[in-house]
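One thing: can you check what follows?
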Amino acid sequence: MIRKVNKTAIGAFVVGALVLLMIAIVVFGSGELFKRTNKFILYFDGSVKGLSIGAPVTFRGVNIGTVKDISLIYDSKAGTVLLPVIVEIEQGRIKGTPSFRDLGGDKKMIALGLRAKLEIQSFLTGQLMISFDFYPDQPAKLRSILKQYPELPTLPTSPDIFDIMNEIPIKDIAKNLDDTSKGINKLVNSSEIPRSLYDLQNTLQETTQAMHSVSLLAEYLEQHPESLLKGKVGK
């Protein structure tokens, strides 16, 4: 006896297959599935005002990762509050160097002077980013508090960063932009604009007619050069 096909089950199977296909397209298309990343922890002593999750992590100006998490932790030994920042770095972004994955073990790049510091990402918004470079003259200060991720040393945050951001006249810049926008709006909506455009159109038409007349005269003289010698031009 032939069993009757369950149309509902078939429909559910088809829908599920389409959903899985769409997820696969998104994952494979973005390349996230094959992107190899490693997370590291950085400790900053001072303020990280302006640093946000998703901020870029760069090495000499080249983007190598992003900030994944920012939190607070109390260091009972030092009696201070530290700001651990978790960063995610793509392994393949730096070619021909020891893998970032091995930094927590052999410390090769740390020994070469690899350090992280805060830098200004945007003067207008006051956003910060994390920048890596080699500073072999700067000591590698490691906190070794959280063991979840390998730790990379940081440099003290320069107070000049916050001084610069505080000195930027954000309100004045915004006011100037607003005044400029109002001026352009007033000019565009001015009643004089249509009249000026009309006058310009008439001038262009008259210029075009004059050039056409000159062209006809030049063509006539080219075909009848004797008329110029006989004083018959224009007759």
Remarks:
- The beta strands are 37-44, 56-59, 62-70, 73-75, 80-90, 114-120, 128-134.
- Residues 192-223 form the longest helix (32 residues).
